[in-house]
């Protein structure tokens, strides 16, 4: 209904965060975006450090890692869909951008500068900080805003150059998503940056059965993020989509919370032919 | 080698569970301090910054 009326949901469930990047300005949102909430608490007059939101991010990260990005994030899903749009045969889909390694660090810059430092330290005369990432970058919020503006004429009347800037970022994200898999998740998303840090230690994880793996590299070839899974199964960039697990001809990649690997103490004679 | 690997996995698991426990405590303290209310307050008013209006 919120989509038709140009209104947002205002119930109590919005005091809880959702795991993915889902802007609370979206008329369909029933929970809060953790990145928006983190900035809201960091920038508020009353609090300076957010134990509630950071604790939530740690719980989700330490349990699932970037599995959330691959399976629960609405904006990630949108980029997934955009990447399925057929392109002319003369065009070429890119597997990575030049300088991929350095570009991938950009999401940590976003997290540190726009999500944490600026809302915390750049405050107005009453001590209130701005949600810098939401205000200047987040295309998910802009997309939500389009739904709101479509049904709300008073909001439409105040749209200015900031709205134009954010729509430009959204347009760039949408167009890039068609030729490059999940550009926002790879280079910009601060939520993915946080969850990615937990990938190597999260309870849900990937494991390589070293006896079965032949390092053929098929896992890397099918990985849309071009990750050498056989070398770094829990890379901070991995969104745990599971494509590599399905593609592995030797079933050497396992995933789960508790992975049972073959007991190495057994010899070949223990396994009847 | 396999034994070392098992110990490594077990240690990693214990560290993660420790982190989860600390995070649980942080969430509880945060709720007691009223952070959930700040989140609710922000999330139930239209975020003009998010949609690019303010």
Question: Can you walk through the features of this model?
Answer:
The complex is a heterodimer of chains A (273) and B (54). With 273 residues, chain A is an all-alpha fold. Chain A has 15 helices and two strands. In chain A, helix 2 runs antiparallel to helix 3 (51-64) and helix 5 packs across helix 11 (161-179). Chain A is globular and about 60 Å long. The model of chain A is unreliable at 263-273 (pLDDT under 50). Chain B is built from three helices and no strands. The mean pLDDT of chain B is 87. With 54 residues, chain B is mostly helical. Chain B has one domain. The interface between A and B is large, with 61 and 36 residues.
How would the blueprint of this fold be written?
The complex is a heterodimer of chains A (about 270) and B (about 55).
Chain A: H1 2-5, H2 34-42, H3 51-64, H4 67-71, H5 74-83, H6 100-104, H7 106-121, H8 132-136, H9 139-150, H10 153-156, H11 161-179, H12 183-187, H13 190-198, E1 205-208, H14 218-222, H15 243-247, E2 253-256
Antiparallel strand pairs in A: 1-2
Chain B: H1 2-32, H2 35-43, H3 48-51
Number of strands of chain A: 2
How would the global form of chain A be characterised?
Answer: globular
Query: How many distinct beta strands of chain B?
Result: 0
Number of helices of chain A: 15
SSE arrangement of chain B, N to C: HHH
Spatial sequence of strands, sheet with the most strands of chain A: 1-2
The value of Rg of chain A in angstroms is 21 Å
Radius of gyration of chain B: 20 Å
Biggest sheet architecture of chain B: none
Order of helices and strands of chain A: HHHHHHHHHHHHHEHHE
Oligomer: heterodimer
Largest interface by residue count? A-B, 61 and 36 residues
**How much of the sequence of chain A is in beta strands?**
under 5%
Mean pLDDT of chain B: 87
Number of domains of chain A: 2
